[in-house]
Amino acid sequence: MSACVPAGATESAHIERAHPPHSPPPGRRRRFRVAGADLSAAVAVFLIALPLSLGIALATGAPLQAGLVAAAVGGLVAGRLGGSPLQVSGPAAGLTVVTADLIHQYGWRTTCAITVLAGVAQLGLGCLRVARAALAVSPAIVHGMLTGIGVTIAVAQAHIVLGGEPQSSVPDNLRALPAQLARLDTAALAVSVLTLAVLLLWPRLPGRAGHLLRRMPAALVAVTGATAVAAAAGLVLPVVDLPSWHSHALAGLPDGPVLGLVAAVLTTTLVCSVQSLLGATAVDKLAAARPGAGHVVRSDLDRELLGQGAANLVSGTLGGLPVAGVAVRSTANVHAGAVSRNSTIIHGALVVAAALLLVPLLELIPLAALAALVMAVGLRMVSLHHIRTVTRHREVLVYAVTALGVISLGVLEGVALGIAVAVGVALHRLTRTRITHEEENGVHHVHVRGQLTFLAVPRLSRALHLVPQGADVVVSLNGSFMDHAAYETLQDWQSTHTARGGTVEITGRRTGVRIAEPGELATEPAHGGESGTSGDCRCRPWTAWRNHQCERPSPAPDIAAGPDGTPGADEGDRGTDPASSAPARGRTPSGRQLVRGLSTFQRRTAPLVRGELARLAREGQQPSQLFLTCADSRVVTSMITSSGPGDLFVVRNVGNLVPPPGVESGDDSVAAAIEYAVDVLAVRSITVCGHSGCGAMQALLGSRPGSPAVTPLGRWLRHGGPSLERLRDPGAPAPRLAGRAPADDVERLCLTNVVQQLEHLRAHEAVARALEEGSLELHGVYFHVGEAQAYLLAEQEGARVFDRVREVDLVV
């Protein structure tokens, strides 16, 4: 019989039993230590969480103490058990509409029971390790859901801001708004306007004094200021009412129709889980982007789901609101410098202390101030950035349907509509194929844009039969997929047309040299070798831009289907010259190779990138990072970083060296590039990339100490001297590769050189200033050419380690 435990618990228990040499003696307790950064971050998050928890409880119609219970449980339980150490959990604005609807339908005690059952469901999902399945939800659906919830919150709280009571739905609130304006409460409106003004202006305070004042959370300052002004002016307003904890309502037995309760549990589970898991991935990005972040441990999403389930189980049992990861508090936690889960736990303990000791002060807060605070949070959930993003990705329909569905029908109904529309849009894109036929200068052109599936076969056949017998034809395939039905249709037509004296040329992004059955290309001989030998051409996925030639004699140009049914690689891209025999690699005359590459670019690549390059020409370059690497021809920056035009500002030199400023015979070229990138282009990161088998490092190892440098290359390599000294210094910790030791002294020097050049970078005035301001971060990368493996420099247990960049690290 096995129990469901968080990942890593078994290993931890095993390590504790083993008593490693550096652990405390078995009979001695380890002292609990809290980093200063965690303590200050906990205070900052607590000051934000306290007013927001009360405001969200007010917006849902729950007892105000329920917000404090959820905040405390989210900090203590989810903070201790969750898989995202820096994420802060508590009552979330995204759950406001769901909870308010549940309270309206079933009452408070049954809502608590639904929260308990949702926690049990989350625990079950965490045990099944399906957390990453939640990330399959389209971002347009998530952003649309949050927008709909934000609009619902803002419209409802507008009634309290005006001195009235909100209705149960957005349409009802909108219909009641004119009557509410007619009986406006000026005192409540004045307190609300003051709260909103402070929320808006506080983060924009100028000068040094403003920089110090902005450390206080705007939410706390706004609510405190509005409370003080209301008390000083003697305004009579509804205020926070926290009844005695002795009369606090706890969870009761579920009461209502079974199907309705099941739907309520599923809705609560879905919203809590998706918001928490997406929040955990966002916190990972924020933590990794912090200056000097070093090695950042990614969130364990299955463990995070278990932690959230336990928190909802406890919160519902104790009469608290549903718990989820909260973006505002998590962002504040990361920006405040938190380094471990201790900050989240301490913030939860501070909420408990406030709920027990600060009740008299909390009961002075006007409800209008809390309503204005929650209304501002709701309006911020309608993100213009997200709207622009979904518009750019052509998913605005999914976003709009989800948002309108949430506003008019409810969260579960709105999300279901969004999913249905997203599936419809995906099917439409998959089946949308545009096929045209035209004649130009006696040559017939058939253009196919989109995926070529069996649904498009009738239109493809109709266009092909418009071509007269014996005519010259160019078939342009601009898609990434061709299924079996389309493949056979095109193959049969091509064979028939060429047999009757016509010619067929297949062009497109991934066309090849002949029609072959799917899977045949994996075994066919290449370069004159036998089937399956090492001479086979394995470079098909990146033939469009590789620099060497995979040559083979070719018959008339046809198409080839890859193993997955997609069109194969284009022989024109591969560089075969039908007029000559296939030369061996490295023997192609450089002039012909240059002309061939330029010709391929103009025919294949230029039409695809012309629009983007025209935009870059109009707007100017705005790269996000400076990439400093070696001039070695095997290091292709666009390949190893998956970047395109305008992404990188690249500086290449022999040995990827960064001469420190002020040295004798310094190099102004590299320094000028650094200054221009940081001060003019405002790049956000600088990467120094070394590589295996570096000739400059080999030359450094073979040089004699103190020998005069008489050649330009020798004078340049003197800038690598500090790296060589660092390597030979027995007291300097040597950087290492994760998983294995460096192969030899050359690789050891290549790794050491990356670390040393990062030190040189910090000595440049522009870099030092940007690092101090927090607007720049430095990265070290080592690229092993033979392994095609990138290693990223990170801090692990005080040592500099180059760790592998794995595919799992890129999943967000």
From TrEMBL:
Query: Principal localization?
Result: membrane
Question: Does the record bear Transmembrane in its keywords?
Answer: yes
Q: Where in the cell is it found?
A: Membrane
Keywords, A to Z, come to: Membrane, Transmembrane, Transmembrane helix
Residues of the region (Disordered) are 1-27, 496-536, 550-596
Q: What sections of the protein cross the membrane?
A: 39-59, 106-128, 140-162, 182-205, 217-238, 258-280, 350-377, 397-427
Bilayer topology reads: Multi-pass membrane protein
InterPro entries on file: Carbonic_anhydrase (IPR001765), Carbonic_anhydrase_sf (IPR036874), SLC26A/SulP_dom (IPR011547), SLC26A/SulP_fam (IPR001902), STAS_dom_sf (IPR036513)
Domain SLC26A/SulP transporter, first and last residues per copy: 37-401
Please describe what this protein does: Catalyzes the reversible hydration of carbon dioxide to form bicarbonate.
Under the heading PANTHER family, the entry gives:
SULFATE TRANSPORTER
The family classification in the record reads: Belongs to the beta-class carbonic anhydrase family.
Q: Name the chain's protein.
A: SulP family inorganic anion transporter
Q: Write down the species.
A: Streptomyces labedae
The top of its lineage is:
Bacteria, Bacillati, Actinomycetota, Actinomycetes, Kitasatosporales
